[in-house]
Amino acid sequence: MPRAYVGLGANLGPREVTLLRAVDLLAAEPEIEVLAVSQLRETDPVGNVDQPTFLNGAVVVETGFTARDLLDALLRVEQELGRVRDGVHWGPRTIDLDLLVYGDEIVDEPGLRVPHPRLHERRFALEPLVELEPELEIPGVGKAVELLEQLV
Q1: What's the predicted TM-score (pTM) here?
Q2: 104 in catalytic set
Q3: What does the DSSP 8-state code read for residue 4?
Q4: Catalytic site residue 93?
Q5: How far apart are CA 4 and CA 99, in angstroms?
Q6: N or C, which end of the chain is more exposed by having fewer CB within 10 Å?
Q7: Of 50, 93, 122, 123, which residue is the catalytic one?
Q8: Taking Cα atoms as reference points, which of 59, 38, 57, 70 lies closest to residue 123?
Q9: 33-76 pLDDT, tens per residue?
C-alpha cells in the first residue's frame, strides 16, 4: 500500500482537539492506516497574515486509496469538522488537511497536484515531514531535509 503524508492545520476554535479528531476520523476510514503523527507546532499565517496563528503538523498513513480517493477522504473529514470554503484564499479555518506526498507519484490533475505544489516553500509543512521521516524524498523535488535547510 502506498505511504502518504498529510499536512494538518487549524487556526480557529479548539485547534488541537480538532486536529486530533481529524487524525481519528482518518484512522476510521477503511482504507487508511495511521502510522505516525508529528508534534503540533504554532506557526504564523502565510499570505493573509491578519488572522490567528496556526497549529500545524503532519500525519503519515498507508492507504489503499488512490491519491484522488484519499483527497476525497480528506475533504470529507474537513467538512465533518466544520470547514467552510468561502472563497477567501489562505483565510482562517477550523481545519485544513493537505495531501502533501503520495508514495513516489507525481499527480497533476484538475483539483489535485501531488506533491503539494508549494511544499518546498513551507517550513510549517516540511518540519513535521522531516520529523516523521528524516530521509523522505519528495518526488520530483528532493529530500525534505535538504529543502528545509534551504529555507533558512
Answers
A1: 0.93
A2: no
A3: E
A4: yes
A5: 8
A6: C
A7: 93
A8: 57
A9: 999 999 999 988 776 667 788 899 999 999 999 999 999 999 99
